[in-house]
Design goal:
The protein is an alpha/beta fold. The chain is 46% helix and 15% strand. The strands form 5 sheets. The chain has a 6-stranded mixed β-sheet, sandwiched between helices. The chain has a 5-stranded parallel β-sheet with strand order 10-7-8-9-17, sandwiched between helices. The chain is globular, with a radius of gyration of 22 Å. Bound molecules: pyridoxal-5'-phosphate (PLP).
Length: 507
């Protein structure tokens, strides 16, 4: 919301929580200093494990997990009124993204002026007016989130996040090392967003042989001396757990390790913008709440949709879709989170069995009880499972649905969407279209499939489905002319740290 403050020439954004409603008009109300004081107090984030200092969003830009191993999350969601939401529907997308972050960042954020950088990053996209929304038929819509520099939705968060981190480091005169565990697309987006920056290095860990050629080349062909790609002999969950350990390690201080995985709250909030944008626009056309089918892995993208819903965006159900690695659909069906072996599939960016971001949802289901959340996460780490109570499970399924889509169904769906709409989709997006088709009869209102990647990133799967290759954007073709640079290591914290020491350590 926009609050005009008396005596101030311009307006500031402030959140209004459930328990604090600011109802001032221009020229009235509290003194600016009093309001700023309230703001500073209001804009702190807590750890999901309840045992770390509360921090502002600006502080979280440069942080991975909290000291207690938890993730940062807000105590309450800023709410947008119906008129504020519809105003957002008319705005340029880069403006919405910048405003949403400012809303969560509070005064501290405003004063540091991150907005210009965020707008600059998004304005450089092929489509700066927002991700394209297509009305395919009746209740079926698509939102194409692959028009950024590396052709997956990760760009929508990582390009502006890199600008914000760079600005923060410049203001504070510090350097940082960004650590990134990737199942493919996050690493590509991170490497691109940070390549050539003066204040930050980037270290990308990807599972050996489990990312597509295009994805790997997007991480290894940058020719940027501040980026180190590391191929880890393990799966994504190994990469993720190494990164988590590195944050807690001795070296963390020396290198100022920084997280841009979806455990970084600012990144999730940047993704919230497109759920607000799409739901408001589609709602304006049909007057109904909008459902989303979201190809999921780490539960980051769909959690951003949940935040948009909590802020008041006209959103119905959020449907988690998966490939054979169906840890989330099983959880939604049974209330039991149980880790299995990660199976390599045709949609590698979703080959995950530990959905880190679900910890934020768990914390909310537990009534924001840090101790209870910590106990559950501890059990998951030690015994590979936990179980939600019946009331937690039903609270979860009020907002979410879930659907697994195996290889056969994904390939069939890719063929069907191509035949019906002449549209080539990637194998991740296929799981979303499959779920939309299976569940449409049970949902009220339109369903939007969030297309998470460009089909040209996954040519092998497209060829298997359609017997033809997708058109390759010139930018991807160029990658195949470049020399690759990366090292391969065993899946241990020590092996990765020693690569970092060799590359970026002080001699
Ligand atoms: C990262 C990714 C996903 C999974 O998103 P989460 O935020 O991890 O749930 C799905 N599809 C593609 C193409 C991705 O790159």
């Amino acid at each position: 919301m926009i609050l005009p403050i008396s005596g101030a020439a311009d307006c500031v954004f402030i959140p209004h929580f459930h328990y604090i409603r600011f109802l001032f008009t221009c020229g009235e109300g509290l003194a600016k200093s009093t309001i700023l004081e309230i703001l500073e107090n209001a804009m702190l984030y807590s750890s999901t494990r309840g045992n770390a200092p509360a921090r502002s969003l600006r502080e979280l830009l440069n942080r991975g997990t909290a000291e207690d191993g938890g993730l940062y999350a807000p105590e309450a969601w800023p709410e947008l009124t119906a008129s504020e939401l519809s105003a957002m529907g008319e705005q340029a997308y880069d403006q919405i993204a910048s405003d949403v972050l400012a809303l969560f960042g509070g005064d501290d954020w405003q004063q540091s002026d991150f907005s210009a950088g965020i707008r600059k990053a998004l304005a450089g996209f092929e489509r700066s007016d927002g991700p394209p929304l297509h009305h395919l038929e009746d209740q079926l819509w698509s939102m194409e989130l692959f028009h950024g520099p590396t052709f997956a939705f990760k760009d929508y968060a990582l390009a502006p996040l890199a600008e914000a981190i760079d600005r923060e480091l410049t203001i504070s005169g510090k350097r940082a090392t960004v650590l990134c565990a990737t199942s493919g697309d996050t690493g590509a987006a991170t490497a691109n967003a940070f390549a050539g920056r003066s204040q930050a290095n980037a270290v990308i860990l990807f599972p050996e042989g489990r990312v597509s050629d295009v994805q790997r080349r997007q991480m290894t062909c940058l020719g940027a001396s501040n980026v180190q790609a590391i191929s880890v002999r393990g799966d994504f969950d190994d990469c993720q757990s190494i990164v988590k350990s590195l944050y807690q390690s001795e070296a963390a201080k020396e290198y100022s390790y920084t997280a841009v995985n979806s455990i970084n709250l600012a990144r999730i909030l940047l993704q919230t913008s497109y759920y607000i944008y799409a739901s408001v626009k589609i709602h304006a056309e049909c007057g109904q709440s909008v459902n989303f089918a979201v190809p999921s892995g780490n539960f980051g993208n769909i959690f951003a949709g949940y935040i948009a819903k909590q802020m008041g965006a006209p959103i119905g159900k959020l449907i988690v879709t998966s490939n054979e690695n169906d840890v989330l659909p099983r959880l939604f069906e049974t209330g039991m989170m149980s880790k299995a072996e990660t199976i390599p599939t045709i949609s590698p960016s979703m080959d995950i069995q530990v959905s880190s971001n679900f910890e934020r949802m768990l914390w909310i289901l537990k009534g924001r009880d840090g101790t209870a959340t910590r106990d559950m996460q501890k059990q998951l780490a030690e015994r590979s499972f936990y179980e939600l109570s019946q009331s937690e499970h039903s609270k979860l399924t009020k907002d979410f649905g879930a659907m697994k889509c195996g290889k056969g169904d994904a390939l069939d769906t890719m063929r069907q969407i191509h035949e019906q709409f002449g549209k080539i989709i990637c194998p991740h997006s296929a799981t979303g279209y499959f779920a939309a088709d299976q569940l449409k009869a049970t949902l009220d209102g339109p369903i939007v499939v969030t297309e998470t990647a460009h089909p040209a990133k996954f040519p092998t799967a497209v060829e298997e489905a359609l017997g033809m290759l997708p058109d390759t954007p010139a930018r991807l073709e160029d990658l195949f002319a470049c020399e690759e640079e990366f090292v391969t290591v065993s899946p241990t914290v020590e092996a990765v740290q020693s690569v970092i020491d060799g590359k970026f350590g002080t001699p």
